[in-house]
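Sat 14:20. Reprocessing the chain from the morning session after the first attempt stalled halfway. Input below, unchanged.
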Amino acid sequence: MSKLPLTALATFEVAARKNTFVAAADVLHVTSSAVSRQIRSLENRLGYALFDRSGKTIRLTERGAMLLPTIQSGFSELRRAVEVARHFTDSRRLSLTMLASFLQRWLLPRLHDFQTRNPTIDLRFSTSSQIANFVDSDFDAGIRLGGGRWKDLKSIRIFDEWLVPVARPELVKRIGLIDKKSMISKLSLLHAEDEPWSIWINAAFGQDIALPAGPRMDDSIGVLVAAERGQGIALARWSLVNADVASGRLALAASTAITFHRTYYFVAPPAKYDLPAVRAFRDWLVDTGRRVEPPPVTVLPRHAPRADS
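Finished this time. Tokens:
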């Protein structure tokens, strides 16, 4: 290890990503001449050129391009190992990533129970609709809505999800439950990109139906807020509206729900999966998920529509 040119290899990796020695110097907080010296020393050690310096920018040579992926993979593994080692000395901190809708509507109302059981664990949450990169971030674990298989991650199912139409109670009382396909064209539907009405309609009535125009949002929470304000009917994930239906803020707008094709999973890199804080949160989450009940209506499988009515 004492003979391994780690500084030169790290400089090479940054220069290859930035395509100029000047940009690499900014990242590394050194001078461009220092970057050039590190690259030259590495080239002398290897016995071949890593960059073509014929223009204003640098380009990887064929051998440099072959070396780069291995160097990047090696540094990723080193970063991961250091992060895992740090967590063994700071086992109280737990950094989690998940959808904002799941955090706000399902997890936060239940979180007091976990904190009471684990008062020394310092939870940190990050919410994004983008899939987190566990390799280049300090996330310890996450909650994902999907099929259960993600590359380089271990996963365990938390609970299934269902889609249900919901609206303000007075709106449901006025229009009645959605039980005929002929009703669809007369309704004020609120549309969310991730929970399209077409899949519920196809399962409930056995065919696709032209949908009436209505507000379209890329945010599940935004659709629910609009429904709570009486602006229309939302097709919602049951986990997000269960408490609202129980409290009377929203009401089920149909006697049929469908099983969503995506499920909630707890995920973590294998190296972090059994760290004390990760294990404590995972076990609590799975145990809490076992108590989740489906909506109190007829639940249809995702691909099994009933006869038309």
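Residues 304-309 have pLDDT under 50 and may be disordered.
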